[in-house]
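C-alpha cells as discussed.
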C-alpha cells in the first residue's frame, strides 16, 4: 500500500528526468501530477528496501519505465513504476485487487476550495489498463482530516461499479484550513489501498491574492526578490483557486497567509525573504532576470554562522521541485537539512546565469559561506552544472555529477575542485559520467572520484548514490 506521508512532504512533482523536454512538458497537468505520485511512491519503497536483491527485482521494471518515458507512453511508465514498487516490497506477485486499485487515478476537480457549503467531485479512472474486472463489492470511503490528524469527518462511502466514474465528496461548510483527504479503496471491509490528497478550504482566495499583487510599496526601497516572489506566489494562488492542477500539492491557506505577512512587511519598508527559513519557493532577482527556484534555508543563520550552499540542476522535463519531491522523494533536501546546508534548486538551469551571480543574490538575504559552494546535477542538469562550473571554477568547492555530463570543455580549470561522478550500473547516461571523470584524471587532477552505483539506472541513480556523495562531501567540506 502507499505509505502515509506528512502534508509538508506529500507535495508531488512530475517524473521529468529525461530528454525530450518540450514533449514531456506538454503532457496534461493531471498526467504529470499522477505520474509524479507513482514515482514518489516507488522512490519511498526504493529507500525502504535498499538491499541488492529487492532492488535487483525492481531493476527491469525501472529500465522499462525509462524507455516508456522516452516514448512518451505515460500510462505504461506509470504501470512500470507501480510494478517496480511491488517488486521492491515483495518477491510475490500482488493480488488482482491490489493491481486494480493501484491502477486507479483519483482526480479532484480542485485542491483549493472556496469556503462555503459545497460538494467536491472526484473522478476515478484507470491510469492504465490491467484487464482485472471490477469486483461487485468494491467501494471508496473517504475522510477529511485536519492538518494535525485529530479531527476527521466522513465525506464519501460509495460503491464503485464502473470506470471511469465520478463521486461527490461532501465537504460542507468548513472553516478555512489546510486539510488532508484520505481516500480508501475497499473490497467489502478489507482495505486494499489508501491514498492521501491535499485539500485547502480558503476564504476569498482570489481577492486576497490580488491584494498581495497590488501591495503599496516603494519599489526603490523594497528588495526586487521580495517583490518578484510575492507576485509569483499570488499568481499561483489565483491559478489554484481557479482549479488549475499544479505539479505539486501545497497548503494554500498557509501559503496565502505567508504571502500576506510578506505584503505587510514590504509595505512597511521591511524585508520578507530574509525572515524565512525552511522549504519554500522563491523568485530571485539576479542581474536583469528573475529566476524561479526552490530553497531550503537552515534556521538561525548569522554572519558568524553562515550556511554552505548546494546549487542543484535538475534533469530535462522536470523543474526545481525535483530536488525536493523526487530523486528519492526529496532525499537531497533531507540530507542537506540534517547538515545545516542551504539548497537552491534552479529551474531549467537558471537561464545560464552564473553561479557567482546566483550566490551573491542569495547572500543579500541569507548568510552564505562562500568558501563552501557545492554544485550537483543530474542528466541534462549534469551537463548544465559542468558548463556553469567551467565558466566560474574559482567559486566552487565540490561537484556531484549523476546520470550524464560529459567531458568539460577545459578540464584544466577544475584542478582545485573536488569532483564526484555517480554512474548507475544500468544507466544509459553512465558514459557521460565516466567521460567527465576520465577527462579530469587525464590532465592530472587528483580530487576525482568515480562511483559505480549498483544496481541503478537513470531514474534511481541519484537516490541510490546520494548517501555515498554526502559521505564524500562531508570530508571535502571539512578540509
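Sequence:
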Amino acid at each position: 500500500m502507499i505509505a502515509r506521508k506528512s502534508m509538508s512532504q506529500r507535495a508531488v512533482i512530475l517524473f521529468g528526468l529525461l530528454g525530450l523536454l518540450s514533449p514531456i512538458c506538454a503532457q496534461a497537468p493531471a498526467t504529470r501530477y499522477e505520474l509524479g505520485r507513482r514515482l514518489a511512491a516507488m522512490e519511498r519503497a526504493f529507500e525502504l528496501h535498499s538491499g541488492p536483491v529487492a532492488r535487483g527485482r525492481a531493476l527491469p521494471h525501472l529500465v522499462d519505465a525509462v524507455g516508456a518515458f522516452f516514448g512518451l507512453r505515460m500510462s505504461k511508465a506509470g504501470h512500470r513504476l507501480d510494478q517496480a514498487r511491488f517488486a521492491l516490497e515483495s518477491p510475490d506477485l500482488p493480488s488482482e485487487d491490489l493491481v486494480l486499485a493501484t491502477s486507479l487515478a483519483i482526480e479532484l476537480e480542485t485542491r483549493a476550495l472556496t469556503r462555503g457549503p459545497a460538494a467536491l467531485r472526484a473522478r476515478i479512472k484507470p491510469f492504465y489498463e490491467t484487464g482485472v474486472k471490477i469486483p461487485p463489492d468494491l467501494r471508496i470511503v473517504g475522510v477529511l482530516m485536519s492538518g494535525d490528524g485529530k479531527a476527521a469527518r466522513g465525506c464519501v462511502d460509495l460503491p464503485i461499479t464502473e470506470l471511469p466514474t465520478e463521486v461527490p465528496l461532501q465537504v460542507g461548510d468548513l472553516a478555512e484550513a489546510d486539510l488532508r483527504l484520505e481516500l480508501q479503496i475497499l473490497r467489502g471491509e478489507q482495505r486494499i489501498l489508501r491514498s492521501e490528497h491535499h485539500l485547502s478550504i480558503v476564504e476569498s482566495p482570489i481577492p486576497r491574492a490580488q491584494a498581495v499583487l497590488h501591495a503599496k510599496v516603494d519599489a526603490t526601497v523594497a528588495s526586487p526578490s521580495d517583490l518578484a516572489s510575492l507576485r509569483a506566489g499570488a499568481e499561483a494562488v489565483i491559478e489554484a483557486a481557479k482549479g488549475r492542477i499544479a505539479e505539486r500539492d501545497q497548503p494554500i491557506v498557509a501559503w496565502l497567509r505567508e504571502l500576506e505577512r510578506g505584503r505587510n512587511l514590504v509595505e512597511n519598508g521591511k524585508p520578507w525573504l530574509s525572515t524565512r527559513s525552511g522549504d519554500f519557493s522563491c523568485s530571485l532577482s539576479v542581474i536583469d532576470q528573475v529566476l524561479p527556484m526552490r530553497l531550503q534555508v537552515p534556521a538561525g543563520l548569522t554572519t558568524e554562522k553562515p550556511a554552505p550552499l548546494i546549487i542543484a540542476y535538475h534533469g530535462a522535463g522536470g523543474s526545481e521541485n525535483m530536488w525536493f519531491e523526487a530523486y528519492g522523494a526529496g532525499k537531497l533536501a533531507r540530507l542537506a537539512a540534517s547538515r545545516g546546508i542551504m539548497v537552491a534548486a534552479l529551474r531549467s538551469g537558471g537561464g545560464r546565469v552564473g553561479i557567482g551571480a546566483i550566490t551573491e543574490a542569495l547572500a543579500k538575504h541569507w548568510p552564505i559561506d562562500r568558501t563552501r559552494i557545492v554544485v550537483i546535477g543530474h542528466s541534462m542538469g549534469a551537463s548544465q552544472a559542468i558548463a556553469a562550473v567551467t565558466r566560474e571554477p574559482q567559486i566552487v568547492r565540490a561537484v556531484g555529477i549523476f546520470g550524464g555530463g560529459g567531458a568539460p570543455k577545459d578540464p584544466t580549470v577544475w584542478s582545485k575542485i573536488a569532483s564526484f561522478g555517480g554512474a548507475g550500473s544500468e544507466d544509459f547516461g553512465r558514459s557521460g559520467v565516466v567521460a567527465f571523470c576520465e577527462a579530469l584524471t587525464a590532465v592530472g587532477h587528483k580530487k576525482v572520484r568515480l562511483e559505480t552505483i549498483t544496481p541503478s539506472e537513470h531514474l534511481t541513480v541519484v537516490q541510490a548514490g546520494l548517501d555515498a556523495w554526502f559521505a564524500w562531501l562531508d570530508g571535502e567540506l571539512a578540509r
